[in-house]
Amino acid sequence: MIDNFAADGFAVFPASESFLPEALHIGGAGCISATANINPAGIRALYDVWKTIQAREQHTRATAIRQIFQPLPIIAAMKATLAHWRRAPSWQHVRPPLTVLPCRANQPGDAINARRHIEKAMRILTRRPGGHRADRGR
């Protein structure tokens, strides 16, 4: 896509920050990613440093968040994360045909303990590079 259309001014945005550095190297414009809703600063930081030595570390951090949500119903999982983080249960509502992430995602028959995955993402998101906790505005 980039090779065929970028020269004509067509901006190509891959659908995941996982592909962002490679896309930028060949003329991509950025990315449109579902996880930008919960990790905008991390993805922006990756965009800002993609030509520098810090790119690998920032890519690893941004991709780690993506990988936590990837096996889950991604929209419902991100909305559940926002609901928890904002202490606003209404944030977990989704529009049909999507369904709300179960409150107890470790129920029999569930393949993934979603809450544990979400809590892991939240721990990563609240850490700054260097291991210091970030202020979440509370």
TrEMBL record:
Keywords: Lyase
Coiled coil ranges: none
Gene3D superfamilies xrefs: Aldolase class I
SUPFAM superfamilies listed in its UniProt record: Aldolase
GO molecular function: lyase activity
Pfam families linked: DHDPS
InterPro entries assigned: Aldolase_TIM, DapA-like
UniProt key word Lyase: yes
Key word NAD present: no
Domain of life, source organism: Bacteria
Protein name per Swiss-Prot or TrEMBL: 4-hydroxy-tetrahydrodipicolinate synthase
Species in which this protein is naturally found: Pararobbsia alpina
